[in-house]
């Protein structure tokens, strides 16, 4: 692969677990910017605990790949050289390199091996590592083994930063690590408490799965295929909690916000951006759209989405340095970016993990506000209809969700009855709380589900808006 630059490499100070497309288009670019600014120690050693194993590809490309940032006003190609090493297996001494300062990870929600909605370990998900902690398979098991080795080597503490898009990701990591360590190697517990920190972080950039078109666009610009190449939007944000075990690479110099409390930033992102993506995913697929950009550019859905996004924003406290209205407008523009082909079914994947923080918590704030309540009732009705596995025309929708079998059971049991369907879905643990007990909300979900038997959500929005006058929308 051709190269325009090559910097002197130093031992990497960052170790990352899970160098998937998101990492390569997000944290690896921040590291690249630090390296370009004269910090060659800000390189990354990446470990692929699970397939795809990328070390051979990385070596074949001389450690380089490209990120294509695309928007309507143009595109920019970045050659990234911050992944100094990519390894396909972890080793017990992986945290013992004296140059190491920061461990980051993108494991996906399932990688934390917890009971969804709690911070407790799911024994079934991590049974092997609980039984044989010296030959771990999970990231949690590896981290415990490697931390213990670090402790025994007399090395100082270390910062472990989760970069997954899950609520309070650092607290979750800390809780599962504490429980795992207490149950498998209690001699590590005190040392971990005193020396290891688990900051929360909020990471943001829309990075769709690389499809043929994106792969071809990158290859055309680079002059040859790039098996690690990723296409993404230009927008990027990384907010990290100031809870560090020691010095870390100078992330602040390349735009990372290091703050005392990440929660307001996280809520803003989960509700405004992710909430809009999730609402649009189910409404959009049922209305016949394939990508987020197509659905968000449709005039009927665009108007509805704008109402929804501002209703979400009303539930938030504005984080320091942000402007919620500007953020909401920017979100709508990001979702309309025609050069980002983010498939709605990709966003719809694992929605039972996503709905709580993205939709449910905000819906509860609006239960007694009739117009807003209807926005959420439609989101809920579309989510339920989607998860029955069929749209109004009877076309199959692929369901990829840990609760898929439960969804199928509820759907079969309801036998086409909208009330039973709504009650069945709302009885899921995910909705424990005021939402399912609110009779007015349930009645609206049932009524909308009945409508969605014969019309798409888009047709429903267009019809009900016209009935009520132009400015009111569903
Ligand atoms: C998306 C996210 O697939 C999804 O669930 O909503 O991956 C989203 O694109 C990212 O959180 C953006 O930072």
Structure write-up:
It is a single chain. The chain is α/β, with parallel strands linked by helices and 474 residues long. The chain has two domains: 246 residues, 3-Layer(aba) Sandwich (Rossmann fold); 205 residues, N-(1-d-carboxylethyl)-l-norvaline Dehydrogenase, domain 2, CATH 1.10.1040. The strands form three sheets. Strands 5-2-1-6-7-8 form a six-stranded parallel sheet. A hairpin with a 2-residue loop joins strand 3 and strand 4. Helix 11 runs antiparallel to helix 12 and helix 17 crosses helix 19.
Jot down its keywords:
474 residues; alpha/beta; N-(1-d-carboxylethyl)-l-norvaline Dehydrogenase, domain 2; 2 domains; 20 helices; globular; binds D-mannonic acid
Sketch the major β-sheet.
6 strands, parallel
Which homologous superfamily in CATH is the superfamily of the largest domain? NAD(P)-binding Rossmann-like Domain
Q: Hetero groups bound?
A: D-mannonic acid
Question: How many strands in all?
Answer: 12
Rounded to the nearest angstrom, the radius of gyration is: 23 Å
Please state how the strands of the largest beta sheet are arranged side by side: 5-2-1-6-7-8
CATH hierarchy, class of the largest domain: Alpha Beta
Low-confidence stretches: none
Summary, kept brief:
This protein has 474 residues and is of the alpha/beta class. 46% of the residues lie in helices and 11% in strands. It is built from 20 helices and twelve strands.
